[in-house]
Amino acid sequence: MTTAHIDFETRSTLDLKEVGTDNYAKHPTTDVWCMAYAFDDEPVRLWTPWTPGLPAPKELLDHIAAGGNVIGHNVAFELAIWNHVMAPRYGWPALDHRQCKCTMAMAYAMSLPGALDGAAAAVGLEHKKDMRGHRLMLQMCRPRRVDPDGTVVWWGDDDRLERLFDYCKQDVEVERELARRLRPLSAIEQDLWWLDREINQRGVQIDTETVAGALKVVESEKKRLDAEMKRI
Questions:
Q1: How far is residue 28's CA from residue 77's CA, in Å, rounded to a whole number?
Q2: 4 burial via Cβ count (<10 Å: 0-12, 13-18, 19+)
Q3: Three-state DSSP class for residue 69
């Protein structure tokens, strides 16, 4: 069965590590710089909304709509961007989490580093992560500045964009080679990964009234203990 390897590069006024993947993907300022993708052993291709007249990647969208498999490194991020940015704003078909497999999860299952560069080095891949490109990505994912009137200005000059595009394509090369070298998750482990996605998408029920009461008790006890420490 044909497999698509994908990777997004994005930008947002939010800090991904502070707010989490779903909150980041759902925010109105979050958008994509580009997406690199490849089918099986075919050359890596690039799509970006910033190239005038560039059509949507029909072959990839048809693959997703038909239930085709997708692999990515920490593919939960690609899944969130696809469903919260590409589907509602660009009209792309929804991506089901059960179509997705994650090389980060495969690496962890083999007690290897989770980061793409670490996992690639651990198994001795020919392709290496572009660390200079990684630093550029960290710059371009956040605003250059926000003007007094609220206008967000991004790092979007042609030179930086071309280097970011190359970085994104290289990440797909590395992830694809890594996927070939790692053992697939067992059926039980893959089911667990899918269940984890379902739990994260749905959330878990919380008794908010009890939580609020517990926080009040904690705050009261902190004051009591502070007073006791001062007395001692």
A1: 16
A2: buried
A3: strand
Q: Would you tell me how many other CB atoms lie within 10 Å of the CB of residue 143? A: 16
Confidence band, pLDDT 50/70/90 cuts, at residue 187? very high
- Average pLDDT for residues 104-118, to the nearest whole number? 97
Tokens of 125: 């891949």
Global pTM value: 0.87
Band of pLDDT at residue 204, cut at 50, 70 and 90: confident
Q: Is the pLDDT of residue 201 over 90?
A: no
Residue ranges with strand state E in the chain: 3-11, 31-39, 45-47, 69-72, 100-102, 145-146, 152-153
The DSSP result for 12-52, as a single string, is -SS-HHHH-HHHHHHSTT-EEEEEEEEETTSPPEEE-TTST
Name the band, by pLDDT with cuts 50, 70 and 90, for residue 226: very high
| Sequence-distant (≥ 6) Cβ neighbours of residue 135 within 8 angstroms | none
Q: Are strands 31-39 and 3-11 parallel, antiparallel or unpaired?
A: antiparallel
**Amino acid of residue 193:** W
Q: Hey, what are 206's tokens?
A: 């919380």
Q: Parallel, antiparallel, or unpaired for β 45-47 and 31-39? A: antiparallel
Q: Which two tokens stand for residue 101?
A: 């497999």
